[in-house]
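chain below, 161 aa
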Amino acid sequence: MKNPLAFVIVAGLLFAFTGCTARLVDYTIISTKNVDLARAGSFQKGKSRVQGEDKMSIIIFIPTGVPNVKEAIDRAIESVPGAVALVDGVVDYRYFWIPYIYGEETYIVEGTPLIDPNLASASELKSQFMIAKVNKDGDLKELKYVTPEEYQKAKARVFKK
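prediction:
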């Protein structure tokens, strides 16, 4: 290169815009939940892998918090109804920072959910939509599951424009 200053600037920019990824743990089974191992024989392995992450930003040079592995594990487990643990997975840590501009720190947990069928059936709702009726004091009078169409009709009645 003819201009050494240009070389230093380009090398500095390439160095500044790099990030780092580190594989922290490969695991056979991991959980942050209370798992009844006496019933482990009835657990079922999920069909697809799930991922959870906990991310915090660095603005200028001030971090907005500290990412937490437990939170990433919880998010992955809770993404599947009835899941109590993850099996055959990995925990990664990713980091990047553009000096004095922006950066991120992230824990990423990936694995196959281990599902307790008893919890899965209990967590399935009849519908995602419910209508609640309350009296003038705000006390609950009625709560019922409805179809999406019934919900939209009730919503239109309440929020007339």
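Residues 16-123 form one domain. The chain has a mean pLDDT of 85.
thats it, cya
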